[in-house]
Structure formats: structure tokens, C-alpha cells
Design a protein that fits this description.
It comes from Desulforamulus aeronauticus DSM 10349. By secondary structure, this protein is an alpha+beta fold. It is built from ten helices and eight strands.
Length: 246
Amino acid sequence: MNSIEKVLWILNRLGEEPYELNLTTLANEMNTVKSGVHKTLGIMMKQGFIIQNPETKKYSVGPALYRLGKVYDNRVGIWGITKPIIMEVAEITQETISIGIREGDHAILAYKIDSTLPVRYVEDIGIKYPMNGSAIGKVLAAYHDTERVKELLNATKFIKHTPNSIVEPEAILQEYQKIRDQGYAISDEERFLESFGIAVPIMNDHKNVWSCLCITGPKVRFTSEKINSWIQLLKSKANEISILLA
């Protein structure tokens, strides 16, 4: 098989039971050496087409496939599962509610329901968020592979968009630890002035995080009382989504 055939074979194979396979099994079924398959898997992981369970070392299809398939969106995928839930959250809060996913090393806005209020927070589907200055970007980075995150932080020169922007790698790592400890991320005017966001992780059945539930809007509407209430609401709804996805 050539390189393209290998990629397509792997994607098709991981779309069949048991939906997770390790390197040895894939190489044996492809009747090829493990080194070549490992290289192909590495490229596919980098692009977000597959993911690897850090505990079992098995590979499965990744979040990049969600964004490529409108059919998936319209049928049984995460949007079909989450839409009623985020519509409920949007109705309760009256703010913009979104689902962020991680594709490789990038945090992506996958789905959203915009606030109907005259002044609201609006961004385009598919936008990539920085890992230091957005609720979605920070929460997905906080639960990403630690060593890979350190590599990215050391290789990236962050822009201080506002006085609240966190740009030093050590400070960002401390922020990630805080996020993991409390179970949510807050972005308080870190990308844009007068904006506020809260994101909570959505875990799959392996307790891995590659998606999150987020609320964003003008900071003036995010009172202390609402922030505390909405954090609990998001956590509850993210848990519902996790159960449905499992």
C-alpha cells in the first residue's frame, strides 16, 4: 500500500468493531512493518484524524473527522447529541453557548448557538483558539498531554492582547493546573476587552478530554452570582453529554 492507501485503510478499519486497535494489531492486519505504520499514525494524530488512549495505547478515530462530515452533523454525531442540551443552556442563560473540540494541538469552535440579545459574543465555526487566552483554548490545553503542551508553550511566542493576557509559559502551566483542580476555565478579558467566558471539559468513556462546553458574552452581564450559577450549570450539562457520548 502507498501512503494514501494506508491512511484510508486505517480510517476505515477504525470505523469498524472494536473501534480501537493498537499498533501491533494494525501492522499485522495491514501485513506491513510496525515502523511504517507508526509513522503514518503519528502524522494522522498530528492532524487530529486519530487519537491514542494514553492508558491502553490503542488508536481510534479523532475529532478532525467531525468537522469534515456534514452528514455526521445532521445525524448521530456530537451535534445531534449535544444540540438539545446546549439549546437548553442557551435558553436559561441567554448567552452564546458553544462546543469546542481539540483537533491535534488546536482548539476549534465546532458548534454554537448565538445569544439572541442585541449585544452578544459571536465567532465563526472553525475558528482556532489560542491555548493561553480563551476559555475553550485553556480548558482543552489543560487536559492535553502534559509533555506536548510544554513543547508547544516553549515553541510559541504569545501576544499580550489585553492587560489580562497570560503569556509566560510557567504562568500558563500554573493556570492549567488551576483549571484541572477546579474543573473549569475562565477567560476574563484575556483576548478581548469587555468579554468573558467559562468552559468546562467534556470527558469520554476513557476519562479523556477532547471537547468542552462553553458560555461567552459581555463581561458586564457576568455577575458573581451568575458566574457561580453558570459554572454549576455547565458542569451538570457537560456531565450529561459525557454520559450520552459513552
